[in-house]
Design brief:
8-stranded mixed beta sheet, 8 strands, 159 residues, alpha+beta, 36% helix
């Protein structure tokens, strides 16, 4: 068994490194929440490759956000991934009543988490195998998910 570990970060490079590690370690589920995902490298080749491998293994991706504009404008790879794996991915947009939520996190397999304490800042921590670190964000994500509506759906004309 691998010892739980917590890694603190405060730069974009460190955030991206921990996010890639979380995605790479996930086998069954990835739950992500961020107001707009402008800091997440969802459109990068490296993250696209990791997400495609995760989905090809049968993983499920759930993404919740306040605003879709950044993804729609800057992440064509991610939009193609949503189209290609529409049966394994779901994106939901929060209602106005939840737009004050400003944290940001990625939960992998109910075991690992990469979390920024506030979406306006890069400071955060990644916890791998530390189940206590997942408990509150998991409950938050599930509550956000239930209240949100489906968005970023592929259409016949594309996205």
């Amino acid at each position: 068994m691998v010892e739980p570990r917590v890694i603190k970060f405060d730069t974009r490079r460190e955030l991206e490194l921990q996010l890639r590690a979380c995605i790479d370690a996930a086998r069954a589920g990835l739950d992500l929440f961020d107001p707009d995902f402008s800091v997440y490298p969802l459109g990068s080749l490296e993250v696209d490759t990791l997400l495609r491998a995760f989905l090809a293994r049968g993983g499920r991706l759930r993404l919740a956000l306040h605003e879709t504009a950044h993804i729609e404008r800057h992440s064509p790879r991610f939009l193609r991934l949503l189209r290609d794996y529409s049966h394994m991915c779901e994106c939901r947009q929060t209602p106005r009543g939840l737009r004050q939520l400003t944290d940001s996190f990625c939960i992998g397999d109910e075991r690992d988490i990469v979390r920024r304490f506030h979406s306006d800042h890069l400071r955060g921590e990644a916890s791998f195998g530390e189940l206590a670190a997942i408990e509150l964000p998991r409950h938050r994500f599930n509550a956000i998910w239930v209240e949100s509506r489906i968005t970023l759906q592929p259409t016949i004309a594309g996205l």
